[in-house]
## 1
Amino acid sequence: MAFAAVLVVCVAVLALILSDKVLPIEVWATPGSVREREEEACEVIEIDLSENTARTSQEPHPKQTEIPPKTTPVVFIDAGHGGNDGGCLEGDIIEKNVNLSIAGIVKDNLERLGYEVVMSRSEDIYVAKEERVKAANSIRADIYISIHQNSSEVQSVNGMEVWYDGTDTQRDSRRLALLVSQQTAKSTGAVEREVRGDADFHVTGSTQMPACLIETGFLSNREERRKLVSQEYQEKIASGIVQGIEYYFHPKTMYLTFDDGPSAENTSRILDILKKRDIKATFFLVGENVEKYPDIARRIAAEGHTIGIHCYAHDYEGLYRSAESYIEDFEHARRVVYEVTGVKAVMFRFPGGSINSYNDKVYAEIISEMTKRGYVYYDWNASIEDAVADTEPMQLIANGVSTTLGRKKVILLAHDVVYDTGMILEELLDSFPEYEMRPLSEDVEPIHFKDSSAIG
Ligand SMILES: [Zn+2]
Ligand SMILES: [Zn+2]
């Protein structure tokens, strides 16, 4: 009896799934997948958001109305053109064939990584753009990537362009486009011409999931055409696209930290940008500045950023005269921050970092006493070097990118009292699409200079 009831539930859930997944063209990539979904339907699938992974357990059974969430991302790969629509033509090179060839390699690589891949076409046939979009929408693909080649009357033009619909901010298309562009440029060495948010294509505009269209190169450029038709270069393109997709679903983690503030204009500018992008960061505050700009300090807390203590007065010699002088200054700053913001700070950052030329005789004693009191300190392992005088604004971005060294976990040092830092912040954030920005909290494993992996 119980078994029969279970069977009814399974069949009902399966019917719901299938009714939702009927496709005009190529359906699931592997023949076994419908059966796998049938089995999945009888399990409760718990999504563990903190780990970004899904796990399953055998019991209990879902209610009849529940459709289990997908466990693996579904990527829709759209090889542009096909059949009697060739795309651009250069001699005997037809765009549709290059697109299909790259799309096939992307599919194979993604499947090897465990993704589910659906193609708009897997052979040389004509598929209307409306059909492509309908197919992706009806299976609720997680992302959509369209692959094309470019052409120009100016034969010297070369490089890569990625397009997305910037008018739709509900979808995460911009991050997808930035990642595909960044990673493909990295793997091919091609010029990253532009990531354009003004796409007016059906495939980027009418899809319901994050979508972008990549023009991987110019068939009109003789040198680039030679590369684009080679297996070796197509593999480089494909591995870039796949790496971009990997970071889209599994981003690395960056903790943005701002020291020395608050300051009236510079901190406000930074807070405006963070708010617009819905990014939370961490501010290590200076007590004196909190007294000067209490409203800004309160705004930092009110907008969900986390607060740590930097010091009360930013005076290296006074601070590091002795462990006592450090702790006295720290507790003073902590009191001020609490009175102004209501935050009982536990995190702190040493002015100059935990080990510096001013504190080599006292740092061990300070760390020991502060740890005893329950405080947690954070150094950094990447920096935009904005505290270095006379640095060109664009150099700050280059510093940030070069010091992250591709690490999975980055604590990035910046200063919200520096004018240029606010000026380049948007561009800096765009340089890190492979990172998810999070605020520090006491439960984040700290980075300390004394551990060898950090940069001083
Ligand atoms: Zn095309
Ligand atoms: Zn400082």
## 2
Amino acid sequence: MPFPFQKKVMVMTTDSTKPIQKITIQTEDDLYLAISAARHLMNRLDFNKVDQQKVIVSISELCRNILNYSEHGTFLAEVTGNKLRLTFEDRGPGIEDLDEILNGRKSPLSKGLGMGLAGVKRLMDYFQIETSREGGGTKVIVEKWNTCENRKRRND
Ligand SMILES: Nc1ncnc2c1ncn2[C@@H]1O[C@H](COP(=O)(O)OP(=O)(O)OP(=O)(O)O)[C@@H](O)[C@H]1O
Ligand SMILES: [Mg+2]
């Protein structure tokens, strides 16, 4: 007969592998929840370790931007075919001079090195950003694909 602890773990695993995960980002702990949700989905997609780490760094950067500049927002993780798509959305003040920031210029409002967005753009396979200074907030969509080429680099 299985003991209760084993049963509890099984229930948690079933919930956390849902192909869509939405999390409100309001505290630092929510950032770790988002990483954990993405990790389960990446295991399901059989991502290699290098790509998993790139996704985790990207989630950390984009969630920290929400916490630093907008107070709160949402994180959505979806699996479609061999792709992991992550959407970060907030209703904060928006980003001024986005093009320059993506080209490496540091914002005067920066609370860090000013390299977060440019770094995420480089780490992920797809990067899209929409931002509005008139109350529309900021929406970032990124994707990591488990392509044949990426699988060849697997090291686990
Ligand atoms: N969600 C957001 N809402 C409003 N402004 C943002 C948001 N994300 C980024 N910004 C603005 O864009 C700038 C650049 O963000 P980026 O993440 O590239 O660097 P940073 O946060 O300044 O520093 P780092 O990420 O290296 O610690 C920020 O300084 C901030 O002014
Ligand atoms: Mg940042």
